[in-house]
Design goal:
The chain has 627 residues and is mainly alpha-helical. It is built from 26 helices and eight strands. Strands 3-6-8-7 form a four-stranded mixed β-sheet. It has a two-stranded antiparallel sheet with strand order 1-2. A hairpin with a 4-residue loop joins strand 7 and strand 8.
């Protein structure tokens, strides 16, 4: 390997690293569909990815990125840096001490208020460090990103939610058998990446899964923005990264395929903003590999990513019929995702759209902190609308033709979001009905990020010539906005909002094991909230189904869960027996957690109709056995 290649690898390390991950993911996913995943497949895919990534860098003729200026810290910078490191240590220590294996309704119920005080001080010190324009301070931005993204990892002792445990179990099944049936056209991208990393990972698969998105996002988002905009002034890199953190902290706080696909899409968008990079046809191998990875991880992100790349390519190189291709691609951005939602069981239902969330709300009945937080929280759609209008003015008033591709993709996906809001899912609970539309709204927002980046640069140029007092006031407002965004990114229980979402607890797992160890036979069903179902999947996998329904009821809907609600609302043994007759089961276990509203009254009524009653965790959970 000659000196020139070493120099290229060093200056293009992030390009090489991301392409290596992407090609590995793609190859393993293809092998999975054609065959199965085993150690040989993982090794071959890794070696081929390494070779192709090396060749890409070797023959890359685009201009290498500038190197980070390794100027040493001054004595004042060293003091600031030392204080920042000390506060980071205290903040992570607070989070580690806040870990709980109980049913968590909100992480803020377990984290000391001192966390926000120290975090405010940390942000002030980081902002002061930015004044010196030392590029070594990029490191602190990544640590700050990880702090924001890792709260669920530290506080939730078992897992953040149902989906996370489901994917962890699927990983275990693939690790054991090499595949899981049915072989779906989604999620396998994340599974491939995790199983590939797991071969050199010294700890548990569950730990890898929980850290994957928070760690990758905290490293790759700052790194790719720095890589692609390194020719820009220091302030035009660090401050947009701070602004961006306030907008995306909820997206990358835990690992699920949808969030990982959002990360790869954001990386794709950052590279597409690099004019020198996208001007070379050769580099579209890298971009196409990213798009393929996004599709393997989650098609909901993969489809818009593919259409965006088509528009970018035909626009840059003016291919024959490029205008017609662009029109069709933009039309596809509007229509394809809603059509996919209809294909998976959705149906048009005019009048489903909720306009109340788009009305401005003023608050004032609580303390100043909550009032400030929920002013942003309750008016987030209004703020998004203001940003969209500002982006529109910026793109067209300043004739930023280079940004129109992002703006038009944003508008197209906003149209797809509007159509998706008119699609109802009868088989989902009221909590989950809007989840698909909300994901499309996030996709639209991500396409607006490059426009907002350039808009923030324009605003920063104006702020730079303002007085010191104005800059201090702007920094204070930014800190308030960042803290509000972080608080709103996680489940909450306060005087304004109650998420009513509890995490899985050790007692839930104990209840699952108790039923399995004391069962009369395997022909039983369990009626419970979805955290118990997640516990069953974690402990025993996808063990048994009654038709389309898992033997533990699921809150997302279905026959068993509807019976669960009926029996709790009006406890009758006949209701349980009707369910047993419909499913052909011998007995039913009904589980009631102590956080259920009216727990004591419902427990007394259920005890009357039950054949056996069991207590778990000193009465935290009651199990009612009906035959």
């Amino acid at each position: 390997m000659n000196i020139d290649i070493l120099r290229k690898l060093k200056s293009n390390f992030w390009l090489f690293f991301i392409l290596f991950l992407s090609i590995s993911l793609n190859l393993i996913s293809i092998f999975y569909y054609l065959f199965k995943i085993n150690t040989l497949i993982l090794v071959i895919s890794g070696l081929v990815a390494l070779f192709l990534s090396y060749l890409f860098i070797h023959f890359n003729t685009s201009e290498s990125s500038q190197q980070v200026d390794n100027q040493p810290f001054s004595w004042l910078e060293r003091i600031l840096g030392g204080l920042i490191i000390v506060i980071f240590i205290f903040l992570f220590r607070i989070l580690a001490k806040s870990q709980s294996f109980l049913a968590i309704d909100s992480p803020w119920s377990f984290i000391s208020p001192l966390f926000f005080i120290l975090l405010s001080l940390l942000l002030i010190l980081i902002f002061l460090l930015f004044y010196f324009k030392n590029k070594r301070s990029y490191f602190f931005i990544s640590i700050l990103y990880f702090l924001f993204f890792s709260i669920s990892f530290f506080v939730y002792g078992i897992a953040f939610g149902y989906d996370q445990l489901l994917h962890q179990r699927a990983l275990r099944e693939i690790l054991k058998d090499g595949f899981i049936l049915p072989k779906t056209l989604y999620y396998i991208g994340q599974y491939s990446l995790e199983l590939f990393i797991f071969k050199i990972w010294p700890w548990s698969l569950e730990l890898l899964d929980r850290l994957l998105v928070p760690v990758l996002a905290s490293i790759l988002i700052p790194a790719t923005l720095i890589f692609n905009f390194k020719k820009r002034d220091f302030n035009f890199i660090v401050w947009p990264l701070i602004f961006l953190l306030a907008g995306i902290s909820s997206i990358f706080s835990y690992t699920v395929p949808q969030n990982l696909s959002f990360l790869f899409l954001l990386i794709l968008l950052f590279f597409s903003c690099n004019r020198d990079f996208v001007a070379v046809r050769y580099n579209y191998f890298f971009l196409f590999s990213l798009v393929l990875s996004i599709g393997f991880i989650h098609p909901l992100s993969g489809v818009p990513a593919f259409l965006f790349l088509v528009i970018l390519y035909v626009s840059k190189f003016k291919l024959l019929g490029h205008r017609l291709i662009k029109v069709l691609a933009y039309l596809g951005q509007v229509l394809i995702l809603p059509l996919l939602l209809l294909l998976i069981g959705g149906r048009f239902s005019i009048g489903v759209f909720d306009f109340s969330s788009w009305c401005l709300r003023f608050l004032g009945q609580e303390n100043i902190f909550l009032n400030a937080v929920y002013f942003f929280g309750f008016n987030k759609n209004i703020l998004l609308l203001i940003l969209a209008i500002a982006a529109s003015i910026f793109v067209f008033k300043y004739r930023r033709f280079d940004l129109r591709i992002y703006y038009f993709n944003f508008l197209a996906l906003l149209g797809a979001y509007g159509l998706s809001c008119l699609i109802d899912f009868p088989f989902l609970s009221s909590v989950d009905k809007s989840s698909y539309a909300n994901r499309i709204l996030i996709l639209a927002g991500l396409f607006l990020v490059p426009v907002l980046y350039e808009l923030s640069v324009c605003l920063l140029r104006k702020i730079q010539i303002k007085s010191v007092c104005f800059k201090i006031l702007a920094s204070i407002l930014l800190i308030i906005f960042i803290l509000s965004s972080l608080y709103l990114s996680y489940p909450r229980k306060d005087n304004y909002f109650n998420s009513r979402s509890f995490s899985i607890s050790n007692y839930d797992l104990e209840a699952v094991r108790f039923i399995e160890n004391h069962k009369e036979n395997d022909n039983y069903i369990v009626l419970a909230n979805q955290q118990l179902g997640a516990g069953a999947i974690k402990e025993y996998g996808f063990k048994r189904y009654y038709g389309p329904w898992f033997y533990y009821s699921n809150q997302t809907g279905g026959l068993p869960y509807s019976y669960y609600l009926k029996i709790i609302a009006e406890p009758k043994k006949e209701t349980a027996q009707r369910l047993l007759a419909e499913l052909g089961a011998d007995s039913v276990y009904l589980i009631l957690n102590d956080y259920w509203w009216g727990f004591d009254k419902i427990s007394q009524e259920l005890q009357v109709i039950s054949d056996q009653v069991y207590d778990i965790g000193s009465g935290s959970i009651k199990i009612f056995h009906l035959k």
